[in-house]
């Protein structure tokens, strides 16, 4: 039997982190002078302050104590671990009170999880704190954009170049009729033949779907994914090959295309919360798409729908029948694990709709595959 099943959740969490970080092998020793032992002891104290407060006094509301703890974990733990521990600490020390205490909030390390929670609180914060919120969101957005923009543009252009006709085609790939017409001026009377200077490939360049309609779910269940999705949208809009529109939806639909060139304003313009009606955005899209055969609709959602499932499926069928191609980009939670309605995802996949979840770093390669005809 697993003894952990009978332990409180905070003790289980502490034990897991000790196993991951290897601190079980070292006893806490305040007099340790070795760098490795000292680091292990600091890590152990930080873990106990968060997950075993009865042993070490805990992570209370004392501003100096929380500041010291935030600075120590940033110095002693890998970045990925810092994000998880900070997220757990926020659950214990009210986030709103952290933000309202400027001394504390200056020591928070902004990440996607924190930004998602900040955005949900933003409407309740005093106007005097909006600049501080904006600065924290800007830092995360700019970091994501720097990672994603070059990779996405490179992936799209790279796949295009792979499928373009080669400059010097092989013999069996030459379009002889077009080659002869193109080289008539190079006819050589002495030899009674044409010596071509330009060989034309029989293939045709691939087409890029010029029109992209992004439909972004901004319901309460999408908090973490909305941060990524907003940056995805702005990055795609920066690719000159594409004409991108953005619709944000919950139970209503909001056009946000005008904000695509500024991912920060786009994210701050989101209204996280409420329910979900996917069929509403699909019907709106169908009514406003001008060239269905030249359009890709990318639905960014966890597919948890509060409306009529049959209406959703009928709306989807009408969209596909019109000639629009659909891609379903599923949500991932704060730990990077896909989170979605399996019934709807299975139905989408059976209709031949590319339906997948991906991490931000995988997004450029995967999305470029489906934007090329």
Task: Walk me through this protein's architecture.
- The chain has 373 residues and is α/β, with parallel strands linked by helices.
- Helix content is 50%, strand content 10%.
- The protein has 16 helices and eight strands.
- The protein has helices spanning 9-21, 35-51, 53-56, 63-76, 79-92, 95-100, 102-105, 112-121, 130-163, 176-182, 223-237, 263-268, 278-288, 309-321, 342-350, 363-371, and strands at residues 187-188, 193-194, 211-217, 243-249, 253-255, 295-301, 325-330, 355-356.
- A six-stranded mixed β-sheet has the order 5-4-3-6-7-8. Strands 1-2 form a two-stranded antiparallel ribbon.
- A hairpin with a 3-residue loop joins strand 4 (243-249) and strand 5.
- It is globular.
What attributes characterize this protein structure?
alpha/beta, two-stranded antiparallel ribbon, globular, 50% helix
Quick overview:
By secondary structure, the protein is α/β, with parallel strands linked by helices. The chain contains 16 helices and 8 strands. The strands form 2 sheets. A 6-stranded mixed beta sheet has the order 5-4-3-6-7-8. Strands 1-2 form a two-stranded antiparallel ribbon.
Low-pLDDT parts are 22-34
Shape: globular
- Could you give the distance between the termini? 54 Å
Structural class: alpha/beta
The percent range for strand residues is 5-15%
Largest sheet, in brief, is: 6 strands, mixed
Question: What is the helix fraction of residues, given as a range?
Answer: 40-55%
Helices and strands, in N-to-C order? HHHHHHHHHHEEEHEEHHEHEHEH
Number of helices: 16
Widest sheet: strand ordering: 5-4-3-6-7-8
Mean pLDDT: 78
Radius of gyration: 27 Å
Q: Total number of β-strand segments?
A: 8
């Amino acid at each position: 039997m697993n003894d952990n099943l009978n332990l409180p959740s905070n003790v289980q969490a502490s034990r897991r982190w000790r196993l991951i970080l290897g601190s079980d092998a070292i006893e806490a020793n305040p007099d340790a002078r070795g760098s490795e032992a000292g680091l292990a002891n600091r890590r152990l104290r930080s873990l106990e302050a968060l997950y075993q407060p009865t042993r070490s006094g805990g992570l209370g509301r004392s501003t100096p104590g929380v500041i010291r703890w935030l600075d120590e974990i940033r110095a002693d733990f890998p970045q990925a671990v810092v994000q998880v521990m900070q997220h757990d600490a926020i659950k214990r020390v009210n986030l709103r009170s952290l933000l309202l205490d400027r001394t504390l909030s200056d020591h928070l390390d902004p990440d996607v999880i924190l930004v998602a929670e900040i955005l949900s609180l933003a409407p309740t914060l005093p106007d005097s704190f909006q600049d501080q919120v904006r600065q924290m969101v800007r830092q995360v957005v700019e970091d994501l954009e720097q990672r994603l923009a070059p990779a996405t543009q490179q992936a799209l252009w790279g796949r295009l170049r792979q499928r373009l006709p080669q400059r010097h085609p092989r013999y069996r790939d030459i379009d002889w009729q077009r080659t002869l017409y193109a080289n008539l001026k190079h006819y050589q009377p002495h030899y009674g033949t044409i010596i071509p200077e330009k060989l034309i490939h029989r293939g045709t360049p691939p087409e890029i779907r010029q029109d992209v309609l992004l439909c972004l779910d901004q319901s309460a269940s999408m908090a973490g994914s909305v941060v990524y999705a907003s940056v995805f949208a702005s990055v795609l809009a920066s690719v000159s090959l594409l004409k991108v529109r953005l619709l944000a939806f919950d139970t209503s639909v909001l056009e946000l295309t005008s904000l695509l060139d500024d991912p920060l304003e786009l994210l701050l313009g989101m209204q996280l919360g409420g329910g979900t009606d996917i069929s509403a955005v699909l019907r709106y899209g169908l009514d406003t798409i001008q060239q269905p055969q030249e359009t890709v609709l990318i639905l960014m959602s966890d597919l948890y729908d509060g409306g009529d499932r049959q209406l959703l499926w009928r709306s989807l069928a009408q969209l596909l029948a019109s000639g629009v191609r659909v891609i379903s980009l599923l949500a991932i939670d704060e730990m990077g694990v896909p989170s979605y309605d399996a019934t709807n995802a299975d139905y989408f996949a059976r209709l031949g709709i590319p339906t997948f979840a991906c991490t931000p770093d995988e997004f450029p390669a995967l999305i470029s595959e489906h934007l090329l005809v």
